[in-house]
Design goal:
The complex is a heterodimer of chains A (about 120) and B (about 110).
Chain A: E1 3-7, E2 10-12, E3 18-25, E4 34-39, E5 45-51, E6 60-62, E7 70-75, E8 80-85, E9 94-103, E10 108-113, E11 117-121
Parallel strand pairs in A: 2-11
Antiparallel strand pairs in A: 1-3, 3-8, 4-5, 4-9, 5-6, 7-8, 9-10, 9-11
Chain B: E1 4-7, E2 10-13, E3 19-25, E4 33-38, E5 45-49, E6 53-54, E7 62-67, E8 70-75, E9 85-90, E10 97-98, E11 102-106
Parallel strand pairs in B: 2-11
Antiparallel strand pairs in B: 1-3, 3-8, 4-5, 4-9, 5-6, 7-8, 9-10, 9-11
The chains are: A mainly beta (about 120), B mainly beta (about 110).
Chain lengths: ~120, ~110
């Protein structure tokens, strides 16, 4: 059974940093693209970032809204996905989901999701 | 970036109704479209991928259709468990983008 467990969320001041983690189990983690998707309170879903599996050299992708501030990475030896978030802003406040992807030749959709970790950016 | 527009944003329906949600892409995405269901306080759940392929375990009352820029999600006979929010997502290219969502409410 695929399981994804996010952690690392919390309250942070504007301009601060936070590192999210996602512990994965139930599948061969290194083989799969992994994504982060966020949802601001009462709002819709926003894709944030993705990182390819070990077979594709760890390519990374970002939404324009986080490019240059967020960094996605993974530790395949520990089956863990990370999201380093710097220069945080109030509009980064959201529930952050980790997701396992299934991919076509061109791109990927999220077939399994964690339960999310809440990030609140406020002074 | 590819923009995704869903309609309606809210839909009121009764148990047993046939429900249709529309998703439009700002450019052709072939059939690289997924649909998700999200219940309050829960993570999204994949319903359909490649526009019309039903994810394993999803009831057959859900169906998807369309290609290019116009897509629909249909629930053939709405059940109490189906009152939720629904999102489309294009995965033709990065950045991936979601529609704004459709909330299906009890009439």
């Amino acid at each position: 059974e695929v399981q994804l467990l996010e952690s690392g969320g919390g309250l942070v001041q504007p301009g601060g940093s936070l590192r999210l983690s996602c512990a994965a189990s139930g599948f061969t983690f290194s083989s799969y693209v992994m994504s982060w998707v966020r949802q601001a309170p009462g709002k819709g879903l926003e894709w944030v970032s993705a990182i390819s599996g070990s077979g594709s050299g760890g390519s990374t992708y970002y939404a324009d809204s986080v490019k240059g501030r967020f960094t996605v990475s993974r530790d395949n030896s520990k089956n863990t996905l990370f999201l380093q978030m710097n220069s945080l802003r109030a509009d980064d406040t959201a529930l952050y989901y980790c997701a396992k992807d299934t991919c076509t030749d061109t791109s990927c959709y999220c077939d399994y999701w964690g339960q999310g970790t809440l990030v609140t950016v406020s002074s | 970036d590819i923009q995704m527009t869903q309609s309606p944003s809210t839909l009121s329906a009764s148990v047993g109704d046939r429900v249709t949600i529309t998703c439009r892409a700002s450019q052709s995405i072939s059939t690289w479209l997924a649909w998700y269901q999200q219940k309050p306080g829960k993570a999204p759940k994949l319903l359909i991928y490649k526009a019309s392929s039903l994810e394993s375990g999803v009831p057959s009352r859900f169906s998807g259709s369309g290609s290019g820029t116009e897509f629909t999600l249909t629930i053939s006979s709405l059940q109490p468990d189906d009152f939720a929010a629904y999102y489309c997502q294009q995965y033709k290219s990065y950045p991936l983008t979601f529609g704004g969502g459709t909330k299906v409410e009890i009439k």
